[in-house]
Amino acid sequence: MEFISIFKYIINELENNNVKYLILRGYENLPQSYSNDIDFGILSSNYSSLILSLINTKNKFNLRLLYRDSRFEVLKLSLIN
To answer: What global pTM score does this model have?
Structure first.
């Protein structure tokens, strides 16, 4: 799976679902590549739209969405093959 296709799809999903977001870290080589991970900042009121966007991405690219952790209003999720 090509990273750039997945990344562009995620951004389109976020925008189509009106998720207000910032890319906080890991953006230096975007959209061609990323280092370890990409950190997004979103409003807590956008959590459900974020999850919907990630589920749509997961289904489109046949990925797994893993819930890793949640504390101090930080939600850690991973999309993996």
So the answer is: 0.77
